[in-house]
TrEMBL record:
UniProt keyword list: Cell membrane, Membrane, Transmembrane, Transmembrane helix
The keyword Membrane belongs to this UniProt entry's keyword annotation: yes
PANTHER family: LEUCINE ZIPPER PROTEIN 4 (PTHR22550:SF5), SPORE GERMINATION PROTEIN (PTHR22550)
Lineage: Bacteria, Pseudomonadati, Campylobacterota, Epsilonproteobacteria, Campylobacterales
Name the UniProt record assigns to this protein: VWFA domain-containing protein
TM stretches of this protein: 6-23, 55-74, 290-309
Positions of the VWFA domain: 87-273
């Protein structure tokens, strides 16, 4: 099947008719300013192409350029790709408390480094990534391209993330939506535990929707200092209450440490506990781009028209 990917560019072709009209009107105006004898004297001679031929070349160059921008494509059918992946969601805490420096250099930077190590040890798992505080937003849909995930996480900055609070419930709801095709949904939270004393509602939601919550808790019992909106110093401590959510949802709980193998234990646990039950079939279109054909023609016709312009004889 043949079609144009960017078919809206073809509407530009409607400009050709008024363009030809304007050129013709301009020519008639110029001819009206001089007598035929004077016009012949001042007109540049051209032995290559007539004016009409040159105009046709440039107009067709414009037409083919528009066809190239419209991206003509031949579709050769569909390709079925089979894969066996377990899907999971990773959520990184971007609330203001993650700016605390009780973990060097900060909870937020420590969180990112641990996530990088976690991704390195995953096998046959696709990961979707979200950031959360009082709201949850998607950073990346499901992918096995962990280098891209690392790039996105590396470039997360607090200078454009001005969010307060921690809403675990919203993360669970997003997890249920993104992993709706999974019988057993896997959610890993990198967080400092938020400020909730009771996670009963979250536990109930996780059980109802078969979400296993794994928690990597970042922070210390002594806490760290951050500044509130008024510039006052506020002490934020590790909240261990979120441990109940992990243990009551068939997940696991781990507190941060400087041991490089701690996050490896968590990734191995997930690798061993979840296996793809069946191959997933993904259908993609087999498409061949043809834009370079009209593009080459457009360039050739353009230069033919330009280099055929008459030159003043010295």
């Amino acid at each position: 099947m043949f079609y144009f990917k960017n078919i809206e560019f073809l509407y530009v072709l409607l400009l050709i008719i008024p363009l030809i009209y304007l050129i013709k009107q301009k020519k008639e105006f110029i001819l009206g300013q001089f007598s035929s004898e004077v016009f012949k004297r001042i007109e540049f001679k051209n032995n290559k192409f007539s004016k009409k031929t040159r105009a046709v070349l440039l107009i067709f160059s414009f037409i083919f350029m528009i066809f190239a921008f419209a991206r003509p494509i031949i579709e050769n059918g569909e390709i079925k790709i089979k894969s066996s992946f377990v899907d999971m969601l990773v959520a990184v805490d971007i609330s203001k408390s993650m700016m605390a420096d009780d973990i060097y250099p900060s909870r937020f930077e420590f969180e990112k480094n641990k996530l990088f190590s976690f991704l390195d040890d995953l096998k046959n798992i696709r990961v979707a990534l979200v950031g959360f505080s009082s709201q949850t937003f998607l950073i990346s849909p499901l992918t096995e391209d962990f280098n891209s995930l690392k790039f996105l996480v590396k470039n997360l900055r607090f200078d454009y993330l001005n969010l307060k609070g921690t809403n675990i419930q919203s993360v669970l709801e997003v997890s249920n939506e993104l992993l709706k095709d999974e019988k057993n949904k896997i959610l890993l939270l990198f967080t400092d535990g938020g400020n909730e004393d009771n996670y009963e509602n979250e536990i109930s939601y996780a059980k109802t929707h078969n979400i296993s919550v794994y928690v990597y808790n970042i922070g210390t019992s002594k806490g760290g200092i951050i500044k509130d909106d008024n510039g006052n110093a506020v002490l934020v401590k590790l909240n261990e209450n979120i441990k109940k959510l992990a243990l009551n949802s068939n997940g696991a709980y781990m507190e941060q440490s400087l041991n490089q193998n701690d996050i490896k234990q968590l990734s191995e646990l997930i690798n061993n506990n979840y296996k793809a039950n069946a191959e997933k079939e993904e259908v993609i279109k087999d498409e061949k781009e043809l834009f370079y054909y009209p593009l080459i023609l457009a360039i050739i016709l353009f230069f033919m028209g330009i280099f055929s312009l008459p030159r003043r004889q010295k």
